[in-house]
Each structure stands twice: as C-alpha cells, then as structure tokens.
Known about the structure:
Number of strands: 15
Largest sheet: 7 strands, mixed
CATH topology of the largest domain: Aspartate Aminotransferase, domain 2
Radius of gyration: 21 Å
Amino acid sequence: MKYNFDEIINRYNTNSLKFDFAIQRKRPADVIPLWVADMDFATVDAVKNALVQKANHGVFGYSEPLNDYFSALSKWFKDKHDWDIDTSKVVLACGVVFAIAATIRALTKENDAVLISQPVYYPFEETIRVNNRKLVVNELQNVNGHYEIDFKDFEQKIIDNDVKLFVLCNPHNPVGRVWTKEELEKIADICEKHNVFVISDEIHADFTYEGFKHIPFAKIKQGRDDNFIVCTAPTKTFNLAGLHISNIYIPNDNVRRLYKLEMDKVGYSQSNVMGIVACQAAYEYGDGWLKELKAYLKSNLDFVRDYINENLKDLSLVEPQGTYLLWIDCRNLGLTDRQLHNLINIDAKVWVDDGYVFGAGGSGYIRINIACPKAILLRALNNIKSVL
C-alpha cells in the first residue's frame, strides 16, 4: 500500500472528542476509544496540502464555493454512485444533522409525527424530540443476524400517526445495512402514497463492502415526485468531521426555499472556508487513498470477525454491508445495559457506544469503530477477552 494505515497517530491533547474527554464522560483515563465515528487515520495528502496552502494565504474571509467545487462534487457522485447530481440544487450546510434538524423545522409543525427506523443513529431521535415533534418508531427486525424493515409496521405507523416526514439512514448506522433497490423503492412507494417527505442521510455512502452497492435515494425517485432531500458529506469518507461541511441535495424549489429560510432564521450563511477547500481537494484527488482505506477496513473487519469467533464466543457480529461501524450482539452475556456498559467501558477499558442509545432495539448490543490501526483493535479485543 502507498498509505500506512498501521501508523498510530497520537491524538491526545488535540481537542479530540474521541480521545481527550474520557474523564469528563465518566470513562477511565486510559480507556481505548472505539466509539464516535471519526477515523484515527490522517486524511489525503492533497487535502492537507490544500489546507496548508490556504493557511499560508492567511486570509479567511467569507467564502462561497466556485464552479470547480461543484464540478468535483458532480464527478465524484457520477463516478462512485452513477448519480448525475444537479449541483444547482445543492445547498451547503455545516453538517448533516444540522440539515436534518433544519428540514424538520422547515417542513413540519410542532407535534407533527416524524418516523425513524430504530436502532438508528441517535441524533435522529434527539433532533425530533428537541424540536417538539412526535417521535414514531418503526423497529428494524433482526432476522438471524440480518436486519430487515418491517414494511407492514412501517406503513401502519404512518397511517396511525399521520406521519409527515421519515428520516432514512442509508447505509444504515449502526446495523450496517446497505438497502437494496427493492427496499428503497418500497420506502418510496409507501411514502409517496401517504405524502410523507423523506430525508435520506447518506453520509456513509462511500463505505460499502464487496457485493453491496449504495444506491442514492435520488436515483430511486427519478421521474417520480421530488418530496425528498439527500444529505451527503465528505466528512466520514475523508475524516473531515471537524471542518463542518456537507452538501444537501434539495430538488424541490419550494422545499429549497423553505430550507434556506430556516438557515436565515438561525443566522447561518457562508460555509467554513477550510471545509470548502478540503471537500474539493478530497473529491478531486482522494480516490486512490479511499481505495486503500477500504481495503484496510475490510482487513480490520475480517480480523474482528475471526477474533470474536475464536475468543469471544458469547458475542455475535452482525455482518455489515457498509460503514466502518460494527454492531455486536452481546445479549448472550445475560447482562443489563448498565452491567454491559460497565463491563466493556469501565472494566475492559474499551470505550464503545452502548447499543441502547440507538433505541430500544439496541438493548444488549454495542457499536465499535474499526477505523483505526489494527494494533489498537487487538489491544481493545484482548481487554474485552480478559474481562469475559
């Protein structure tokens, strides 16, 4: 490989949420962090060089992306996902969760029902609740280690609660599903039938494993109604989360107007200039780096699977189709969620995301982040083995 993903980069004392806040979040100071979804790898050299060049320029005034930015965006989605994105309908935001919250406020009223399929990325639920919308949950079904959507329940929940909006996660965090064309079409059909707006969070789109292909929701909706938005970002793909840049595809002119009005209400206008620079450089020059990264992540996945099968037989890996986040079933341990939390986070000193925070269906599970050098994974798994 051209890139050394085995290199352990010291992230302590860098204002890192992942590494520097263990004590504040009630973990041991020497805990091994495998929780929040950022990677422990340095980003693409071209991104670093572009940021240094901009820093050396020394002027950081109000900034907007130029045509080259949107050309890079267009080429990336065409090459990677066969999506001819109309960049004239793209609005920049500081993050996907920010865009989801803004869309919920723009298109629904207080006490309107918003649907999610749990277990799912926990800011979805938080965003619905803090905006005083009614949370409606369609529970994903774990069928022999493979998660599926209960479409009968999905539609009934929409009917019973007069749901106005559905937040889709594809690829799905944390269960690792890459939804098929047939599943996405069924979601689109039901939501069209009941006039439900769809927000599709596709921030993990670039991470799928062999045999699985991400399909943008916009491709499913071609030639149909435009009652949806697609949230994209380079931040997971290239480890740029701290630069706060995302690209939100909003095909409906009126929805885009309402979304921008919501931006005006909170006083948000221009994007972070360094985020603009990093996004363009990543999409222009990051393809080779990403290919090697995905190969390394696949190796880490194989390593964790083999380790669990050989050494942690009471645990069960939910085989991921996408993302670098692994969903692990610990229910055979027979522990409460608090006991499981203490066992892994405190006794084993491995900082993971507790499954229950993703919804009731996550009780008894943990989520771990494998986007780190293999040596760190080995230490963490050995620690878990020792307490089991």
